[in-house]
Amino acid sequence: MAEVSVRDVSKRFGATAALDGVSMDFADGGFCALLGPSGSGKTTLLRVIAGFVAPDAGAILIGGRSVARTPVEKRDIGFMFQNYALFPNMSVAENVGFGLRARKVGAAAERRRVAEALALVRLDGLGDRRPHALSGGQKQRVALARAFVTNPQVLLLDEPLSALDKALRVEMQSELKRIQREIGITTIFVTHDQEEALTLADRVGILREGRLIETGAPREVYNAPSTVFAARFLGDANIFEGRAEGAVLRLPDGTAVRIPPGSDGAAAFAVRPENMRVSLAPPDAPGVDSVRGDLVQRVFAGAMTTCVVTVCGRPMKIVAPDREVADLPEAGPVWVSWDRARMMAIPHP
Amino acid sequence: MAQPLGPGDARRAALLLTPAYLWLTAAVFLPLSAMLFFSLLSDAPFRGADWRFTLDNYRAFFATDVYATLLWKSLRLGLTVTALCVVIGFPCAWVLAKTIRGRAREALFLLIILPFWSNSLVRVFSWAIVLRGNGALDWLAGLFSSGDVRLGLLFTPTAVVIGLVHSYLPYVILTTYLALQAIDDTLIEAARSMGADRRTIFRRLVLPLSLPGLAAGAVLVFVPVVGSFMEPRILGGRFGAYFGTVIEDQFVAVFNWPLGAALSFILLAVVLAILSAAAPVLRRAQGAAA
């Protein structure tokens, strides 16, 4: 186990910059998620750390030592592929034992550690199966066991759960978290699923077009995003953009919205959909602000209902318990309101 | 999932298979039956000759050790050529499947398949021109050394091997290429991430996964090479007597068709015996390497 540092790493593929001056530190024993839309460079960053891709510039440090001259097979990593990449010509036990045999740990130690790893991922007794005879969730567990059985310095997971269906994914999320806690290994995983990142990681890094635009603890990044992109990507966000004039934000169409003090000039504020209310009349409560809007859509989804309201020409999303919005008309003029304390100032709009 | 065939499906399947069975009957079964018939005759039933059924032609094989010696020579030739094709063809297939992409791959494929498009006789004679004394190869070697170079390769067993390897190499390259192409690159990356060096990856992953293709290519080479007669005759000269050329002689020169047919069936039986002996070994190798 070791801490991992990415120092100013850049990588170009032809004309496109897959990574553009990315620096990030991954704490020893931490569980970090790299999050971003497809093409943001998150998988490339993982592959650079693993050594599959050589960076054009910058350095990777594992346990404080640069691994620029260390090939993949000597980096002492565990890598889990999106498609699992299980060896079809080997049994489950042989798959898991492959890395141990390459390290020449001896037959007895190999058998014992394979059994331990399979027990940890709850696949005891399936060692003799071939990969093609496993279900999707079982394959995922084998791939995970195979990645950590050698007790590597760092565990790299490339979209580890994306090939599973929703129910299994949620189950595997908590499994993954349990296993990571039990072995306490530095883990970096790539995902495009923001919910997965928030659930699993103790730290997230958000990438966009090859740049790392935000890092921090999930709750911190969710509650105080520093860019509009991060606010929108990590959960939904309704954005107010305009000119701050003291305690008021002037929107492009002239509407004035009260804001927490401290901003000046061009500014952006975000309110999470679950922190907004829709009502027929503006609520009269201290610290609660509201604007007039036009309800255009109401989508019932069980526990919560999503309303789409056009405010100042832009759609805003509001999520509320269904009983709160059940008496609203299907469409028409409404008021959108929020607690001013829930308004998040975006420092870098 | 396979579903049981309904009565309509069975009829349709039979209809679709009919041309294939007709073809097999006309092209394989009938000629082979005719040859089997010939091999049991005392004389070819032409020119009003007297003939009767006999096993003498098969006995002739065991009467002297000439035929057995030649058969053994042909089998050794088949093994040599197959081994060389595998050794040369595997790296070629690897480069084609894993290293080269796009246009360059298409161009290389064309070069590999090109020999198939030329007449095999022309191909063999052009080797004769290259290999003969004072030929193209001697001239080329002379450029790199002082004095007159005489490699004298033509009319040697080496020339036969060169000609056969050139003719049959594409089979091994193509079948192995298909097998290697099917190996997902992430499998190799996964093996590397687990600390395996190149040799381990080759031995435990690439070789077992490509073995079916390699074996198919080897069979496609071994079987025709054991019975080959044209390359030995043209490139082998006085060393060019093989089991295949002896069979050819019976049909073309000596007009002893019954003996030729009998020798052909002995060859067929030996090749089938070798292949059926090799099949379980190959299967075990695939399982054990895993």
Detailed description of the structure:
The complex is a heterodimer of chains A (349) and B (290). Chain A is of the alpha+beta class and 349 residues long. Chain A is 25% helix and 36% strand. Chain A is built from nine helices and 20 strands. In chain A, strand 1 (4-13) and strand 2 form a beta hairpin. Chain B has 290 residues and is mainly alpha-helical. Chain B has one domain (58-289): MetI-like (MetI-like fold), CATH 1.10.3720. Chain B has twelve helices and no strands. In chain B, helix 3 crosses helix 7 and helix 5 (120-131) packs parallel to helix 10. Chain B is globular. The two termini of chain B are 27 Å apart.
Number of strands of chain B: 0
What is the CATH superfamily classification of chain B? Answer: MetI-like
Number of domains of chain B: 1
Low-pLDDT regions of chain B: none
- The number of strands of chain A is 20
Helices and strands of chain A: which structural class? alpha+beta
The CATH architecture of chain B can be named as Orthogonal Bundle
Look at the helices and sheets of chain B and give the structural class.
mainly alpha
